[in-house]
Write a structure and sequence with these properties.
568 residues; alpha+beta; globular; 24% strand
Length: 568
């Protein structure tokens, strides 16, 4: 037997030598990896350990399921402010959750009527309409909570102004309009969502903040893994904690099985969860039936507004006690926005006028794609602005444009997570508050902040925390450089269908917009009212408003930077 084995000795020796050579080549390859690369052999050996240990970012074993509770503890003042803000956006609820469709509000069976005002309406006065909601059986509704929008407009004059809706919580709603122009005017009232649908949206916001999910790619050498990320990650799987150490803004990813937390290279939108509603709830979200459907008028929806009286007449209060106090932020006339409150909005129709206004300025734009839209508009409209190729992904940024002759610098950067962009390098994930903290500011510095759309799927506390950090950074910047000009762009209306409603409904946006206005009220910042500017215009609602609306927003922006000196 030993003799037979001896015949195969050369073969065994050859196999052993081949294995040794292969091992030495692998070791040589591993030694060529840079110091940040973990070898495959070490990863396999440490697989069990790595499931419970993190290198670099903090590691937590469990995450709370309620996003609003994440982040640093609140001070007494912060907690009181948060309670007040949440109370200010409290929404009336029907007695029955997710009532059957036939018991929910039906815009086609509801109606509004323009209330008489002594037979005439005059510029500077007020028009009031009364809405009465009915269900799909034609029965009057006995409670409030429907989400309605209203505008007064004139196609002949290309004019429009937003209305205010007052819920009397008994099925009746008052709609109030300030009358800014003389001539024809037409009332439009739209039901965005029924009160029953709003209940479902509120449940989703509180119970399913994970309905938009995110992902990150982790890579080390030849190895890569992708895991799910979010503010709220259910279960007890180990997490990578990317909470920002300066602002306390939380962010988590499920820890990769083989790689460490510090090997994350990017962030991206993962997708949208499906099957979020019951079959009964789905009936509350139907295009052309109960999502953004016009409410019909009983009688005429048109009036003729007369010029303002020369002599002042005492205006009696109507049904609504707040009627005499309502004033919009502005209105359109001949497709041009006219702001109320003292600002003379100039028309920057020529590129030379924009260049002259921005000469010597550094403009920082931070936020979501609606802020990026401003950058793109200016970059396309002003030929002297030359975009510098930073190699940034399309529609993501950061972006930079320069006009060296006129010393203009225009910059855009997206806000930190949550951000639903395609792919953002991990190194480019910056929180607005941290970016503001690094700016010297001054009379030649202009800042735009737009943060709203990507927070619609989370509890409102998450948005309050983000705005609180941004507000603190703005106030610190203005303290060290008081002449810095800061703009806040509000939320705007957008097109809705059954799917978009569950993630980006105008109701979510309205709630966030109300919070934003309250948190920055009375501060030395300029609010650009994108909400009213999209509501008042006759164009369809879009997440990214059409160019004429963006142009008017930028006219407001530029008029504050370069006020009309003829008025002074």
């Amino acid at each position: 037997m030993w003799g037979n084995l001896s015949k195969y000795s050369p073969l065994f020796l050859l196999l052993a030598l081949s294995g040794l050579i292969l091992l030495l080549r692998n070791i040589q390859t591993l030694e060529k990896f840079n110091c940040q690369t973990v070898s495959a052999l070490h990863q396999l050996q440490s697989r069990l350990d790595s499931a419970f240990r993190s290198v670099g970012p903090l590691l937590v074993d469990r995450n709370q399921t309620y996003c609003g509770l994440l982040g640093p503890d609140l001070t007494a003042d912060e907690a009181a402010e948060e309670r007040h803000l949440l109370e200010s956006i409290a929404w009336p609820e029907p007695r029955l959750y997710a009532a059957p469709l036939h018991q929910s509000s039906d815009p086609s069976r509801s109606f509004f009527v323009i209330l008489s005002s002594g037979g005439e309406w005059r510029v500077g006065g007020q028009l009031e309409a009364l809405v009465h909601m009915h269900d799909f059986h034609g029965r009057p509704k006995r409670h409030g909570g429907d989400f309605l929008l209203a505008r007064l407009w004139s196609p002949e004059l290309r004019a429009g102004v937003a209305g205010r809706v007052v819920d009397h919580q008994n099925g009746f709603y008052s709609v109030l309009f300030w009358l800014p122009w003389a001539g024809p005017a037409q009332v439009d009232v739209t039901m965005v969502h029924s009160s029953e649908a709003v209940q479902v949206l509120r449940r989703l916001r509180e119970e399913r903040p994970d309905r938009v999910y995110f992902k990150s790619l982790f890579r080390s050498g030849y190895f890569s893994e992708t895991t799910v990320c979010n503010l709220c990650l259910p279960g007890s799987h180990p997490l990578c904690n990317y909470t920002d150490r300066h602002t306390g803004e939380p962010w988590f990813c499920y820890k990769p099985k083989l790689l460490e937390c510090d090997t994350r290279i990017n962030h991206a939108k993962g997708g949208y969860l499906k099957n979020l509603l019951t079959s009964q709830e789905e009936l509350l979200f139907q295009s052309d039936i109960n999502i953004k459907v016009p409410i019909q008028v009983s009688g005429s929806d048109r009036v003729i507004v007369l010029p303002e009286r020369r002599e002042k007449v005492y205006l009696e209060k109507t049904v609504n006690a707040d009627a005499a106090m309502f004033r919009p932020s502005g209105f359109y006339y001949q497709d041009a926005w006219h702001a109320l409150g003292g600002l003379s909005v100039q028309q920057f129709n020529e590129t030379s006028a924009i260049t002259e206004c921005l000469q010597g300025k550094v403009v920082h734009m931070y936020g979501d794609s609606t802020a990026r839209q401003w950058f793109e508009y200016l970059n396309a409209f002003v030929p002297d602005l030359k975009e510098f190729n930073l190699g940034s992904p399309k529609n993501v940024g950061p972006y930079l444009s320069v006009d060296s002759e006129h010393n203009i610098l225009l910059k855009y950067r997206c806000h930190g997570p949550p951000i639903r962009f395609s792919t953002v390098a991990a190194s480019e994930l910056r929180y607005v508050a941290n970016e503001l903290a690094g700016l010297p500011g001054g009379p030649d510095t202009v800042i735009l902040v737009t943060v709203w759309s990507h927070f619609s799927t989370f509890p409102v506390e998450v948005y309050i925390r983000r705005l609180r950090n941004i507000r603190r950074a703005i106030l610190q910047l203005l303290d060290r450089a008081p002449k810095t000009l800061v703009f806040i762009r509000t939320a705007n209306l957008q097109a809705l269908d059954p799917e978009v409603s569950l993630f980006n409904s105008d109701w979510f946006s309205l709630q966030l917009d109300t919070v934003l206005r309250a948190m920055f009220k009375g501060l030395p910042v300029v609010l650009v009212d994108a909400w009213e500017m999209t509501l008042a215009h006759s164009l369809p609602h879009e997440l990214h408003p059409q160019p004429i609306i963006v142009k008017n927003m930028l006219n407001v922006f530029l008029s504050h930077i370069c006020p009309d000196r003829k008025k002074h």
